[in-house]
UniProtKB/TrEMBL annotation:
Pathway: Amino-acid biosynthesis; L-lysine biosynthesis via DAP pathway; DL-2,6-diaminopimelate from LL-2,6-diaminopimelate: step 1/1. The record marks H183, E238 as: Could be important to modulate the pK values of the two catalytic cysteine residues. Its EC number is 5.1.1.7. It comes from Arthrobacter gengyunqii. Keywords: Amino-acid biosynthesis, Cytoplasm, Isomerase, Lysine biosynthesis. Gene3D superfamilies: Diaminopimelate Epimerase, Chain A, domain 1. It is found in: Cytoplasm. GO terms for molecular function: diaminopimelate epimerase activity. Signal peptide: none annotated. Pfam families: DAP_epimerase (PF01678). The active site is at C96, C247. NCBIfam families: DapF (TIGR00652). This is Diaminopimelate epimerase. Catalyzes the stereoinversion of LL-2,6-diaminopimelate (L,L-DAP) to meso-diaminopimelate (meso-DAP), a precursor of L-lysine and an essential component of the bacterial peptidoglycan.
């Protein structure tokens, strides 16, 4: 332990702090992959009282230095950089939608990549390759295809989980969706019900996806669609964190579930309002012929520093 109270192993480590719609991250550049971080180190840095404070910790490593990255380089040699993502408690997550935008913003600010208007950057993640472009108000990320988590999910079955949280009058039906990482989405009828739901403790989900789940409570607007865009308000309890101001993969899962519930005439474009702002979600047919989900939103860096 150093005098700062942080693990002594972290002393002298340069970092940046950033966020995407209030979902905040500590970012560290480790191009040669020599600076593995432990769960205890991540938890200490992300501690909001004794550390820098963040929902997640992101290490930028050249893909060639990680086994997961090497595998991705075989399918796309352009995937030079890998986003090594940890939740605030130190656990690993496969993917972070807000994080990947902030990650690219960080790589640009550090001069590690360039990304001109009209160009794209391919990033390696534990949920596969993600293609990122600059857009008007930030970055757009091709998040790849979505999937139902429960393999026995029948297309006719609108719900496949029962979710409970403090403040709900009765347990609610939910739908579990993978965006590379797990989500369970619950629709509520009223904004007042959303406000009354307590996310201090993790909601219970039955059956719970094998590796736990992030839980999104959504209130579809009435009317649902304005100028061709579906409108949702969402709060989220993130696996490995707690309630956060935003979750990019969660917003994608929320749009997937609500579009599924709304049926054939539901729009392909969505605006998801979270406590920290608004993110955009679009459904596109990609070059591989499959439906992909695109997430767009801002990315901000607020500070650079050195851990003591
Ligand atoms: N906030 C992220 C998701 C981060 C990972 C999540 N907590 C998990 O464990 O899967 C996002 O913006 O997608």
């Amino acid at each position: 332990m150093s005098a700062s109270g942080l693990p002594a192993s972290l002393a002298g480590l340069p970092f940046a702090k950033g966020h995407g719609t209030g979902n905040d991250f500590v970012l560290v550049a480790d191009p040669d992959g020599g600076r593995e971080v432990s769960a205890a180190e991540v938890a200490a840095v992300c501690d909001r009282h004794r550390g820098i404070g963040a929902d997640g910790f992101i290490r930028a490593v050249r893909s060639e230095h990680l086994p997961e990255g090497q595998a991705l380089l075989q399918s796309d040699p352009a995937a030079e950089w890998f986003m090594d993502y940890r939740n605030a408690d130190g656990s690993i997550s496969e993917m972070c939608g807000n994080g990947v935008r902030v990650f690219v913003h960080f790589l640009l600010a550090e001069g590690l990549v360039s990304l001109a208007e009209g160009e794209t950057l391919v990033i390696g993640t534990r949920a596969g390759l993600k293609t990122v472009a600059r857009v008007d108000k930030g970055y757009a990320v091709d998040m790849g295809p979505w999937e139902f988590i429960h393999p026995d999910h029948a297309a006719a079955k609108a719900m496949d989980a029962v979710v409970n949280a403090a403040g709900l009058e009765v347990p609610r039906p939910g739908l579990s969706v993978s965006m590379g990482n797990p989500h369970t989405v619950v629709a509520l009828a009223e904004l007042s019900e959303l406000a009354a739901t307590s996310l201090v403790a993790a909601p219970t989900v039955q059956p719970e996806p094998e590796h736990g789940t992030n839980v999104e409570f959504v209130v579809p607007a009435e009317p649902l669609v304005e100028n061709g865009v579906g409108l949702l308000t969402m709060r989220v309890h993130e696996r490995g964190v707690g309630e956060t101001l935003s979750c990019g993969t969660g917003a994608c899962a929320a749009a997937v579930a609500t579009r599924f519930w709304a049926g054939r005439d539901a729009p392909n474009e969505w605006a998801v309002t979270v406590p920290g702002g608004v993110v955009g979600v679009r459904f596109l047919t990609a070059e591989d012929g499959r439906e992909h989900v695109e997430l767009s939103g801002p990315a901000v860096l607020i500070a650079r520093g050195t851990l003591l």
